[in-house]
Amino acid sequence: MAGVRVVTDTASDLPDELLAELGIGLVSLRIRFGSEEFVDRVELSTKEFWSRCSSYDGLPETSAPSPGQFREAFERMASEGADGVVCVNLSAKMSATIQAARQAADALDGTLPVRVVDSESVTLGQGLITIDAAQRAARGGTLDEVVAAAEDAAGKLKLYGAIDTLENLKRGGRIGGAQALLGSMLSIKPVIEVRDGVVEKESQQRTRSKSLRYLADKVRAAGPISRLAVFSADAPDLDDFLALLDGVHPSEKTLLGDVGPVIGTHAGPGAIGVAWIPT
């Protein structure tokens, strides 16, 4: 496949069929349960991750890919005919993943042009940005045009989530401005926003149903939407939330997905989120 190709990391939570359809390359982070380490989506599926979490007395940990993993992905694209690569990564303020991607890009300087974009987002928010870039590449976009598509989407994207507890975020050190919610964390159902690449307090709701209704109202108040993604961390009430979005019709088909190990480690089970790009 000639032209520009797109690579992302497994924090994007994009489904395999969409990666294949758009020719997107994927680089895996690693997940640790105590002394056991797994390559995300290679040695550990999302289903297996949540099953392990239910019986694991502790908090899983994540680690960034090596620069070599990114270089291998970039060189694979070149071997398939790509004359340039754009790599869209999870927020630099949450992970060292993008640093590894940049090191790999620098190592290929003069051999293969690689541009690295900070999505300033996570899970399917990062995924929507990656899709925008990949579709621009598929339409014959130049390296600069594909980068511009990713950066434009990142600048417009909104991401909110309803989570059952802040404990995972707190213990994983990813809590950002949501620290203000900790004092009452046992009595609320927090709604968080990923803003400027970090997790921030958005609101606090007294019940789960109110937090989901609040999320749905945020989507409805957003006006015309180009892309919409709904994602859950093994949440049993996902269908209830989808019912609350009945009548919301983005320009593109709504993307449904599972929160995988990378973000699930910090969000905890039961989280439900939405991300969208306005028209």
Model description:
By secondary structure, the protein is an alpha/beta fold. The protein has two domains: 120 residues, Rossmann fold (3-Layer(aba) Sandwich), CATH 3.40.50.10440; 121 residues, Hypothetical Protein Tm841, Chain: A,domain 3 (2-Layer Sandwich), CATH 3.30.1180.10. 37% of the residues lie in helices and 26% in strands. It contains ten helices and 13 strands. The strands form three sheets. A six-stranded mixed sheet has the order 10-9-8-13-11-12, sandwiched between helices. The chain has a four-stranded parallel sheet with strand order 2-1-6-7, with helices on both faces. A three-stranded antiparallel sheet has the order 4-3-5, with helices on one face. Strand 11, helix 9 and strand 12 form a beta-alpha-beta unit. The longest helix is centred in the middle third of the chain and has 16 residues. The radius of gyration is 18 Å and the shape is globular. About 2% of the residues have low confidence.
